[in-house]
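In response to reviewer comment 3 from the previous cycle, which asked for concrete evidence that the modeling workflow produces usable outputs, we include below a single protein chain processed end to end. The sequence was submitted unchanged, and the resulting C-alpha cells are shown without manual editing.
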Amino acid sequence: MSNQVRVYCHSVAKLRAQAFFSVMGAAMLAGVVWLERQYLLLAIVAVIALVFAAWRDGRLKTVITDDGISTRGVFGEKSLRWGEVSRVSGKGNEIKLHNFDGDVTLTPCAELPGYEEVIEIIGEKRPDLFTATRYPVMKKSMEYGVVLPLIALLNIALGGYIWSQADEFGTLPFIVFLVIGMVAFGFSAAAPQSVHVEKDALRVKYLTHEKTIPAADIRDVELAHWQSKNSRMYFVRLRLAGGESVRLLGLSPSLPIVRLVLKNWRGKRSSV
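The workflow returned the following C-alpha cells.
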C-alpha cells in the first residue's frame, strides 16, 4: 500500500514578497547604522525582530505521510514518526509535537494554506493525545487575559494624553489610539474565562455570565479563522443544532488542541 504524501507550503508569490521586504528592511537598517550611529541600538532591536519574523515564517513547508510528519524551512528540517509523539503543547494558534526523549519538537506553521487539514490529520493519527481526561478545563490564555488588556490600557492612556495636547497633535491620533484600545478590550472580553468539559455538556464561563451547552446540541466543532492581509486569527466554532454557532477564542493551551479535544469529546458523547 502506497505511503500517501501531503505537502503544505507557502505560495511562490508570498515567498517572493517575504524575500523582497526582508532585503528592503536589511538595506534600510544598514543605512540607518551607516548614517546615524546614535540609532545603533534601535537598529539592533529591529534586526532581532527581523530574525524572529524569519524564524516564524521560516517554516516554509509541512509534509505529512502515513508514517509521520516533518517541517522544512530555512533553518533545516525536523521529523517525527506518529508513534514517536509523546505529548503536545502550544499557545495561540500553534500546536507543538514532542517526542519521548524531549529533544525533538515540531511545530507546523499556522500561516500555511491547509493548516486546518494539518490539525485534522494530527488528531486522526493520535487521538489519544486529545482527550477530556487530559484537558478537563481550558482557560483563557495569558495573551487574552493579560497582554490584550495591557495593550488596551496603554493605547487609551496614550489617547488621553494626546487629547490633552489636542492643539499640538489634533484629534485623529486620539481617535486611532482609542479605537485600538477598545478593539483590544473587546477581543479580551469576548474570550471565555474558561471552558469546562463535563460528561454531557460544556460549561463556558465568560466575564459576566456562564453558558451550558449540552453535547447533544453540538453538531460540529471546527477550527476556523479570520484572514487579514498578513496573518490569520483562528477561533474554534461550535455549530449548534438550531443553526446558531458559538465562537471560542483566546484559550490555553492552544486553539488547535482545544478544537481536537472538543471534537473527540463530542464524538464520544454522540456515540453513547
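The first strand starts at residue 6 and ends at 9. We consider this sufficient to address the reviewer's concern, and the full set will be provided in the supplementary archive.
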